Amino acid sequence: ISLDPPAAVREMHRVVKAEGTVAILEGDEFHHLLLPWRIELEAALPAALLCGSRAKYGDGAKLSPARRLRAVLKEAGFRSIRRH
To answer: Could you give the angle at which helices 5-15 and 69-76 cross, rounded to 10 degrees?
Structure first.
């Protein structure tokens, strides 16, 4: 598991063949859990995580690297980027 998503994407670009394809699947294990929470708590949790991330890192990208994935792929040299 890479703790540095941009480094992982650069490595993917380095090893993929010319005209090759790289597929990235984003998963969110937290939402696979079924918890008996009130809807207010369910709604407040992501907001609190974002607030904490902004306080610690200056933005929310550290908690959700996929939000920056398109830019990271372009920075690594990928040219044809599609989202499905």
So the answer is: 40
H helix and E strand count, the chain: 3, 0
**Cα-flanking dihedrals φ and ψ of residue 55, to 5°?**
-65, -40
Q: Which among 18, 5, 22, 1 has a CA at the least distance from the CA of 75?
A: 5
pLDDT along the chain (84 residues), means of 10: 77 92 75 70 82 80 71 90 80
Token pair recorded at residue 6: 């941009």
- The residue to which tokens 């830019």 are assigned: 71
CA angle 74, 75, 78 (to 5 degrees): 40
